[in-house]
Design goal:
The chain is 79% helix and 0% strand. By secondary structure, it is mainly alpha-helical.
Length: 115
């Protein structure tokens, strides 16, 4: 995480997340239906502010506004990079595997019976 914060910035993390999302949509477009910007939007609007709010409530880090202003960009950068790294095996499976194998790798337990 230290190297991500030292060498990467929010633009780089966002571009990587969008590239992985486009690759996932291209590979699994017949199974997944979402816009290419949806994962980044969910990370930026729901996950990162929710994590910061929980950190303020549980860890007593101070005022939410100050913590948000200080930690939002670094946390979003790390979250984008972590999400992208976690989705790379799913992208590979979407490009090469059948729906059953893709469902196992993606963690869809109920998709095998529905698909």
């Amino acid at each position: 995480m230290g190297r991500i914060l030292d060498r990467a910035n929010l633009l780089y993390g966002s571009v990587v997340a969008i590239c992985v999302s486009v690759a996932l949509q291209y590979g699994a477009g017949r199974w997944l239906h979402f816009s290419f910007y949806t994962p980044l939007l969910l990370l930026a609007v729901v996950y990162v502010p929710g994590t910061l709010l929980l950190g303020v409530l549980i860890g007593h880090l101070g005022n939410f506004g100050r913590v948000f202003a200080r930690d939002y960009s670094p946390l979003l950068t790390c979250a984008c990079m972590a999400w992208s790294a976690a989705q790379l095996p799913v992208v590979l499976a979407a490009w090469t595997a059948t729906i059953e194998v893709f469902a196992i790798i993606a963690g869809w337990r109920t998709c095998i019976s529905r698909c």
